Amino acid sequence: MQSQQVEDSTNGETEEYDETREKLQMIRVKFLRLAHRLGQTPHNVVVAQVLYRLGLAEQLRGRNGGRVGAFSFDRASAMAEQLEAAGQEPLDFSCTIMVLGKTGVGKSATINSIFDEVKFGTDAFFLGTKKVQDVVGTVQGIKVRIIDTPGLLPSSSDQTQNEKMLRSVKQFIKKTPPDIVLYLDRLDMQSRDFSDMPLLHTITEIFGPSIWFNAIVVLTHAASAPPDGPNGTASSYDMFVTQRSHVVQQAIRQAAGDMRLMNPVSLVENHSACRTNRAGQRVLPNGQVWKPHLLLLSFASKILAEANTLLKLQDSPTGKPFPNRTRAPPLPFLLSSLLQSRPQLKLPEEQFGDGDDFDDDLDESSDSDEESEFDELPPFKRLTKAQEARLSKSQKKEYFDELEYREKLFMKKQLKEEKKRRKMMKKMASSTKGLPSDLSKDEEESGGAAAVPIPLPDYALPASFDSDNPTHRYRHLDSSHQWLVRPVLDTHGWDHDVGYEGINVERLFVVKDKIPLSFSGQVTKDKKEANVQLEAASSIKHGEGKATSLGFDMQTVGKDLAYTLRSETRFCNFRKNKATAGLSVTLLGDALSAGWKVEDKLIANKQFQLVMTGGAMTARGDVAYGGSLEAQLRDKDYPLGRSLSTLGLSVMDWHGDLAIGCNLQSQIPIGRSSNLIARVNLNNRGAGQASIRLNSSEQIQLALVGLIPLLRKLHGHLQQLSSQ
């Protein structure tokens, strides 16, 4: 029974494929008949490219190979010749062309030349077309409908008038959208300053960038003589056309925002004095008959659109003249941003400590035993350098061990006192909440002198060959103003450069003395692009160990701005466990993405903690899954100890492509003043990196290891010289 169902489904797919293949064959025959009527052979460049693309699309869609494609072409060519020779089978094809361009470039004259009759009146001194109008006719037995539009003005001050004209054009083509757009400009208008960019931007804003994806650049006055070159000699006609075409194409790419766009170019000459061939067709200086070439490019676009619709290679919604090409949002990037752990926003009086509250509770039990141990130690006098030199090796070891032990106890005592001070400050801040506002203000005014701005420490500028260290450029005061404004420096800048990359602004607000609200923004700009990053966040506590944060982010992603609204809820279900659940919604361009995440943090003790995160991001039916795991093993004397090991594992699944990455980093102390740091990165694609670094504050001779690659390079260079 199951085998019969599989066989029936296979037969159904085969019949559907055969039907699609036959329809594609008729499209191929139709195009060959069009080329035949325009006097073009299958060996024409445009005809060959269209046939190749049709065959390639058939191979991608179906299961046939190259031999079947060649057989289909031979059969289609023979069928097209037979139908055209008989002259009885009507050609079911029509094409709608819309003409756009600046005023005076010859739009109406080109339409008259296509139909070989005067459809619209033209005048060298007055504007020809004043409103949108269309004309229908036949060219070589092919039905052609052309929409003529009023001339546009390139100046920036005339763009309001252009917008009114283009909106009327958009309303006119709403019911019957064109199959192809011809953008006309003059070949003999030499301009390299992109003076047409305001006009092109206006066209893009009204119709959308997709209008350029199905447009042909038409350069009129193509029989003009090329100008003289830089040295006074006449330049070639082909070079003249290439340079002018490149200028127009580059301007269209910038207006469309797609530097990969390559619009075909066709040349047109409408003057009656243009050279003609024996058939009366106008011929350009390069020997090309421009009218069949222009019509063939237009018809080819319509044929390829029909093939795409048949093979469902590209969705083109009906009712839209120029459907936008939507780009898939970068779901892995958005998911990675969502999975990042963000610290909880706290009130100013709660920010005396950097660590978590229950981390302090975990430390209390261990620190209480050693609180008075430092005070009970006998007196100890530190030796001088000369006295240390007279000690033996065993005495030095005992001396430095005792010194290190006392330093650790002293630092532990300081940390304990700092924690007590933080708790006292929190209690004082909470106790002043109930006082009247006038009383608290009086206490602040009488408490001490007025706040005086003080200079902040100088920035650490990158190394430079300049004798002058320009730190004075970045000096600023730390005032009592709540807005914190700082410059953003480029640490890898050039010499004699100002070094400013942008500006950073931060401020913390308090709403109703209970809700913290932070704002931070950073704007960086160079000669080519600008990046904006803004963040607004707030946090609300609702119960013991529970808090919900809400944030809004805006950042530059490529050439677009991404707007993200996120929310997270944290709760401590156990003393050593903290869980987080979050949601986010991101708008990037015209794509809306939504995601969720779950995070769990387990603190076993002071030394070991484990963080697990997982989530998903979806947009337009596409889903990306990801997760990470991070385990951290710290020194038993953390934060005083130098031993630290971290193991990280990340997983990302998008479009069935599974990416797994693992990284390990470990810092091992060697003696009192040396550390060994090892890093290992590896992914499931076989790529990885391993590095070992040894640093020391006393064994300066370790720096001599850096001479090994230099000596090796010098030795190899000497060997090459000796061999020569």
From TrEMBL:
Keywords: Chloroplast, GTP-binding, Hydrolase, Magnesium, Membrane, Metal-binding, Nucleotide-binding, Plastid, Plastid outer membrane, Protein transport, Transmembrane, Transmembrane helix, Transport. Residues 92-321 form the AIG1-type G domain. It holds the Pfam family AIG1. One of its GO terms (molecular function) is GTPase activity. It is a single-pass membrane protein. It comes from the Eukaryota. One of its GO terms (cellular component) is chloroplast outer membrane. One of its GO terms (biological process) is protein targeting to chloroplast. The keyword Chloroplast applies. CDD domains: Toc34_like (cd01853). Its cofactor is Mg(2+). GTPase involved in protein precursor import into chloroplasts. Seems to recognize chloroplast-destined precursor proteins and regulate their presentation to the translocation channel through GTP hydrolysis. Probably specialized in the import of nuclear encoded non-photosynthetic preproteins from the cytoplasm to the chloroplast. Belongs to the TRAFAC class TrmE-Era-EngA-EngB-Septin-like GTPase superfamily. AIG1/Toc34/Toc159-like paraseptin GTPase family. TOC159 subfamily. This is AIG1-type G domain-containing protein. It comes from Carya illinoinensis (Pecan). The lineage of its organism: Eukaryota, Viridiplantae, Streptophyta, Embryophyta, Tracheophyta.
